[in-house]
C-alpha cells in the first residue's frame, strides 16, 4: 500500500508539470529517485494507479489521443482538492530526501511538531464518531484539567497540530493543541456534535475568513495593508492568506486587501513584519497595531 501510494503521488507530481506518453512515464519512473527498487511500470499496474489517483486526489488522469496519446491531469478541480494535492506533493518531495544518503547533512530542518502520535487516534475518532478524553494544560490557565471532546477535524498551523471539536458536557466549541494533550483515550459508544454546533463545526465553515487558529467573536472586515520593499515581494510570493488581493502599487510599495476576522494571531502576523508593513484600514485594527507597538517601545525604553 505504501509503494502504491508513493507511485500515485509521483504520478500526480510529474503529470502536474507536463504531459507524457506511457513510454515516457515508464522511462521517468525507472530513473526516479522514488523508485528505490528500480522496478518497471507495467500497463496493467498503471491502470490501477490511475484509478487510485482518482480516489486519493479526486482528480482524473486523462489520455489525449490528439496529442500523441499523452497523459495529463484533469485540472478542473476545486480549491480544497488543489490544497490537498499540493500538501501531498510537498510531503512526497520531503519524503524523497531519504532516498539520498548525503541529504541528512545538507538539509536543515525546522523543529518538527510534537505529539503527532495522537493524530491517528484523533482521526480514527472523527471517522468513527467517538469522543476522546485527555488531560489538557492551556498556556492561558495555571492548572491543567481533564476534558472530553467530540473531535470534528484537525488543523496544522505554525508547527503545531490542533484538534477542533465540541466539549461533551458544555456543548461549546474548543480548539486544543496536541502538544498540550496527555493521556489521550478513545471513549466507547458513538457521540455526535450537537445541533447548535454541527453546521459551524466543519473545516469549510469554522475557520472561514480566519487567519490561524483563533476565531473569536469577531466579524470579518476588509483589511488593507501597505507592504514596503522588499517585504511586498515576499508577501506577493507567499500570501498571508488565500484571500489576498493586490489592489495598488507604488514605486516602492504594494497595497494588499483581505477579508478576515481581525483576530490576535492576525495581529501577531502583521506585527512580525515590523516596519515594512503598515495597516491602512480599518482604523480599529490600525489602532490595535499602534498599541502593540507602543507596549513594545515602552519595554525597550525602560
List SSEs in N-to-C order. Answer: HHHEEHHHEEEEEEHEEHEH
- The class by helix and strand makeup works out as alpha+beta
- Do you know the CATH topology of the largest domain? Arc Repressor Mutant, subunit A
Largest sheet: 5 strands, antiparallel
Distance between the termini: 61 Å
Number of strands: 11
How would you describe this structure to a colleague?
The protein is α+β, with helices and mostly antiparallel strands and 302 residues long. It is 34% helix and 25% strand. It has helices at 2-15, 22-30, 43-57, 79-95, 103-106, 119-128, 231-237, 264-272, 283-301, and strands at 61-64, 70-73, 130-136, 145-157, 160-167, 173-177, 181-190, 221-228, 245-249, 253-260, 277-281. The protein has a five-stranded antiparallel sheet with strand order 6-5-4-3-7, covered by helices on one side. Strands 9-10-8-11 form a four-stranded antiparallel sheet. A two-stranded antiparallel sheet has the order 1-2. Strand 3 and strand 4 (145-157) form a beta hairpin. The protein is globular.
